[in-house]
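Request:
You are asked to prepare a plain-text protein record giving the amino acid sequence and the backbone structure tokens, at your earliest convenience.
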Amino acid sequence: MAVPSSFIPLALVRAKREGHAVEVDERRHQPINQAIAVVKASRKQEAARRFVEFVMSSEGQTLLERYGYRKP
């Protein structure tokens, strides 16, 4: 069964580039705060740490902004 409409993250809209999207005015909802961390039990601590460093770098931040993520 097809769904005629739905709420989805802006990042998914920008990644897919299909269909028609309308952004909900930011004054009409609370932001969804997200975080990044290295999980202590990870078997790949070094790779996870490097990924976090990339995400926090200016290049990573530019990429995130391109897909609709915003700094708090």
Remarks:
- The mean pLDDT is 85.
- The CA atoms of residues 2 and 61 lie 35 Å apart.
- Residues 45-56 form the longest helix (12 residues).
